[in-house]
Amino acid sequence: MTKIISGFSKLTKEKKIQWLSENYFSSQPEIINTIKQYWNADEKLQQLHDDFIENTISNFYLPYGVAPNFVINGENYVIPMVVEESSVVAAASLVAKFWSTRGGFTAEVISTTKIGQVHFMYKGDKETLSSYFNNQKENLYKATASITKNMEKRGGGILDIELVDKTDKLADYYQLHVTFETKDSMGANFINSCLEAIAKAFRRDDIEIIMSILSNYVPECVVKSEVSCKIEDLGGENPQKFAERFKQAVEIASIEPYRAVTHNKGIMNGIDAVVLATGNDFRAIEAGAHAYATKDGSYSSLTHCEIDNGIFRFWIEVPLALGTVGGLTALHPMAKLSLDMLQKPSAPELMQIIATAGLAQNFAALRALTTNGIQEGHMKMHLMNILNQLHATNEEKEEMVAYFKDKTVSHSAVVERFNELRKVNG
Ligand code: MEV
Question: Which atom of ligand 1 has the smallest separation from the CA of 374?
Answer without folding.
Answer: 10
